Amino acid sequence: MRAKGISYDTGFLQNGKFSRKRFDPEVVERELRIIRDDLHCNAVRIMGGDPERLEVAATRAAELGLEVWFSPYPLELTEEETLKLFSDCAERAERIRRRGAEVVFVAGAELSLMNKGFLPGDGIRQRIAFLMDNRERIPELGSRVGDFLAKAVAVVRERFGGQVTYASVQLERVDWTLFDFVSVDLYRTAAIADRFADGVRALVEQGKPVAITEFGAATYRGAGDLGASALDAVEYDEDRGPVRLNGEYERDEEGQAAYVRELLETFDSAGVDSAFVFTFALYDHVHRPGGDPRDDLDLASYGVVKVFEDRDGQELPWEPKAAFTAIGEYYRDH
User: Fold this and answer.
1) For the residues 207-221, what does the mean pLDDT come to?
2) For residues 239 and 236, what is the distance between their CA atoms, to the nearest angstrom?
3) Mean pLDDT, to the nearest integer, of 201-230?
4) Residue 16 falls in which region: left (phi positive, over 0), alpha (psi -120 to 50) or beta
5) What is the DSSP annotation of 273-314?
6) CB–CB of 70/104 below 8 Å?
């Protein structure tokens, strides 16, 4: 693979609240340096909902020589609000690009599921449930997403001179002639494991460079079989965010590591251009060892480090998992 990457969360923003409460630029720089030096990444997908945070992290990443995938992540926004976010972020990304950095602009992610107006429902779970019960509406959904992305690309390219893509889910049926990369958030589940590699090769055979913008596994036994839906183990509160798990789960860091390693091998052998493990850290899914296992939110985290809530304020409030080592070794050796 040309771009060996991981995603870096600056804080998802929903209803005015950040998933990552503490954002210290010096900590950000140190974490990005670790991503470069210890994980041996040459690219990083900078994700989040706040344009200023994104620019700070992207600037630090560019100064460290990393290829930056500047990725504003709208959550529960209207089309108008999303276009305003993209406009602001495209100007910030262009400032970084003009200083000599390699920058790719990612015009949102999974918009049909994460935002208002594409599917009925007040949240992602309701939208997914609607789609599963109304599969005949998938072509209509693709048309709606396509109409919006045409507007979004025009807004971005007016302000940004680099390459542009969109982090899709395959049901959206994106018109890739608008973009420089075919980019897909792609998880292997038990249900599709036997045809997963063939599906990746089919993406590559389309001829345009392919980026896997999101893939990974949670940290409990069996999570890899569930793909992206392993987060369903978490109970959420509208004000407090993730609260606890909905049952008892067994920690399986080696399982998470094996899943990530296997997918990296699959993407590499298929000729994928760029891959971004999800994710370096999920700061709101904290590790609580020694107590009720249902309180250990890190079990459901896709982060390759485990974050400790009682170390908040320390320079680095986390410890690496087995997946951290697996990624570093794979990227170093390939």
Assistant:
1) 97
2) 9
3) 97
4) left
5) SEEEES-S--TTS-B-TTS-GGG-GGGG---SEEEBGGGTTS
6) yes
pTM: predicted TM-score of the whole model, two decimal places: 0.95
**From CA 28, how far away is CA 82, in angstroms rounded?**
25
pLDDT at 327: 98
Query: What integer pLDDT is reported at residue 314 of this predicted model?
Result: 63
Q: For residue range 31-59, list pLDDT tens digits in order.
A: 999 999 999 999 999 999 999 999 999 99
Which residue, chain included where needed, has tokens 């091998």?
265
Q: Please write the tens of the pLDDT for every residue from 234-270.
A: 998 877 789 999 999 999 999 999 999 999 999 999 9
Read off the amino acid at residue 128.
Answer: I
Helix (H) or strand (E) holding 5: strand 3-9
Between CA 93 and CA 14 the distance in angstroms is 22
Radius of gyration of the chain from its Cα atoms, rounded to whole angstroms: 19
Residues 19, 279: Cα–Cα separation, whole Å: 14
Over 80: is that where the pLDDT of 223 sits?
Answer: yes
- DSSP 8-state assignment for residue 251: B
Tell me the helix, strand and coil percentages in the chain, rounded to 5.
45, 20, 30
State how far the Cα of 264 lies from the Cα of 272, in Å rounded to an integer: 10
pLDDT in tens, 142-160: 788 899 999 999 999 999 9
Under 8 Å between Cβ of 213 and 45:
yes
H or E element: which one contains 103? Answer: strand 103-109
Looking only at the bridges linking them, the beta strands covering 318-320 and 182-185 are unpaired
Strand partners, 274: 3, 211
CB 261 within 8 A of CB 326: yes
Contacts of 190 (CB under 8 A, 6+ apart): 225, 226
**258 in Cβ contact with 245 (< 8 Å):** no
